[in-house]
C-alpha cells in the first residue's frame, strides 16, 4: 500500500501536511527538514520543486524558490536527496511544482525517478484535468503514484466532483481565492464553504490549505476536513529560526 | 475567431499542439467566464458598432498603407509600410485594448489590470481606462520601470497605478506573473487585459481577433494600390506576436502569401544574450500556454535579452509556434545592432522613425533577396519616439554626421 493511502486509512482527523521548498534555506537541508518534521509529528510532506515562475505562489514561496535555485537546487539533486532521506523516514512525501518542469525533464523519466527515490504523489496546480486524464493519469497509476487536484470557492460543483474523482491522494481545498501566503484567518464564509463540501459526498480525503498559518487557523480548518496544509508560515519560521525551530513550530500547531 | 481554417484556434484554443489553458484552478473561473462569453459578446451588433466607431474616431483607423518609394528603389522591389505607428498612443497595441475594454465593460468588470514591458501596452491600457473611467493597475518589472521612465509618467498622467514587479528577473515575464497573481486574488471585479497573443485560451485567439483589423484593412488597401489584395510577403517582428498576428490574420489560410516573422537575436543568437525563441526555445508551458519558450534542461525559464523591451519575452504566442512548426511562417532574426542600423537607415530614407521592435523587421529586408516584382508589406508596428534614448546611446555619432 502506498504511504499516502496508509496515512489516510489510519488517520481521519487533524492531519498536518507541511510544505517546504527543496534547497531552501540551504542546498542540503531537505533530508534534515523531512526527518525533523516527521519526528515532530507531521503527517505528510509537500516538497516544493523550486521554479523560476511559480504562478500560484505568493511572495514567501516565490522568494524561497528563488533562493533554492540560487543555491543550486535542481531535479536530479532533489531526487538524490529524497532517495537518501528514504533510508531514515517513511513519512509520505508529495512533490509540488509546475507542469513545465515535468515536461522538460520528460514525463516518463520524471515519474520513474519519483518511484525510484520514494516519492508517493504529485501536486501540479497547472495541469488541466482534461490533459491529465488523457496524457498523465495512466502513467501515474501504473507506477502506483498518487495525485492531488485543487478546488477553490469559485470551482463549480461538477468540477469539484471531477477533481475528487481524479484525486487519488487527497483533494486540496483552497480556502479562498488567492495565491499562497495570505494570512487573513478563517472566516464564517469560508467555514460555510468547507461545510458545503461535506454535503457533496466526495470520496477523496480533504485537506485545506492557503492562509493556514497557526494553531487557530489549523484547528478552524481541520474542523471541516481531514486536516490542513501549512506552507508559507513554515517557510517564514525556517527563515527566522532555521531547522532548530521546526520542532517548536509543529508542536505549537498541534499543541493541546 | 470565426474562420475555422487549419491555422485557426480550435474551440479549446489549440493551434496544432500549441495553446490550450494550463492554469491553476484558482484562475479557472475567470478564464472560463471569458472563454464562454467572448465570442458571443464580440459578435453582438452594438459591440461591433462601438468598436468600429472608436477605432475610426479615437484610434485613427484605417491606418495608411504607404508605398516606401526610396527604400523600394534602393532594394529594387516593392515595399509597403502598414502604418500602425500612426495609431493613437503610437503603436498597434491600442487595437487590442479598445476591444478588451469594451468586453470588460460588458462582463461587468470595474477594475483593469495589465502587464507591460516597454510600457506601450501599459500606456494603451491606461488610455482606454481613462476613456472609460475604469480603475487601472499596470504591473511593470522594477528594472523596466527604471529604463522606461517616460512611459511610466504617461501611465501615471493617464490615472493608472504602476506597480513594480519585484519577483524573478523583474522584467516583462515577471510583470505578467504578477498580473496573473493579482487576477487570482481578485476573481470577481477584475479583467486582465493581456497585451499580446500569449496566455491561456481564449487570450491568444481574442487578441489576434482584435489585431486582425490590420490585415483586414491591408487587403482593401493593397487591392486599390496594386490591383491584388495579396502581397508576396508580409513581414512583422515578433516578441509575443500581437502585431504579427494582426498582420497575418486574414492571410493565414492563403498560402500564396508568405509570412515572415522576425525575432530579436539580441547580441547574437549564440551570445547567451538573445530573445530568438523559435531557435533557442523548446516546447513547454509559459503563462498558461503550451508553446515554444527559452528554458534550461530543468524547465526553468531563461531570461531573454533584446535591446527592444517589446521583444524581450522568453516565449512566443502559440499561434506563431504552430505557424513556425508547420513551416507556414518563415523566421529570421535581427541583432540589436542590425535593428539600430535599420532604424537609422529608414529614418533617413523615408522620414519615419520606427520603434526599435519594428526596426528588427526592417533590418531583414536586404537579406530576403526580394525580386523586382515582389510586393512586400512590413507591419510598421510602432513609432520610435519612445526609443530616442536608445538610439542616441547606441550610435551617438550617427546623430551628428552628414
Descriptive labels:
heterodimer; A: 256 residues; TIM Barrel; globular; B: 402 residues; alpha/beta; Rossmann fold; 2 domains; 14 strands; 17% strand
Describe this structure in words.
By secondary structure, chain A is of the alpha/beta class. In chain A, 48% of the residues lie in helices and 14% in strands. Chain A has 13 helices and nine strands. Chain A has a nine-stranded parallel sheet with strand order 5-4-3-2-1-9-8-7-6. In chain A, helix 9 (157-166) links the parallel strand 6 and strand 7. In chain A, helix 2 packs parallel to helix 13 and helix 4 (75-85) packs parallel to helix 6. Chain A is globular and about 45 Å long. The two termini of chain A are 31 Å apart. Chain B is of the alpha/beta class. In chain B, the strands form four sheets. Chain B has a six-stranded mixed sheet with strand order 3-4-14-9-10-13, sandwiched between helices. Chain B has a four-stranded parallel sheet with strand order 7-6-5-8, sandwiched between helices. In chain B, strand 1 and strand 2 (18-19) form a beta hairpin. The longest helix of chain B is centred in the first third of the chain and has 19 residues, at 25-43. Chain B is globular. Chain B starts with 13 loop residues before the first strand and ends in an 8-residue tail after the last helix. The model of chain B has no long low-confidence stretch (mean pLDDT 95). Chain A binds chain B through residues 51-53, 55-56, 58-59, 62, 66, 69, 74-75, 98-105, 125-128, 131, 149-152, 154-156, 159, 163, 174, 177-179, 182, and chain B through 20-26, 28-30, 167-168, 173-174, 177, 180-181, 184-185, 187, 282-288, 293, 295-301.
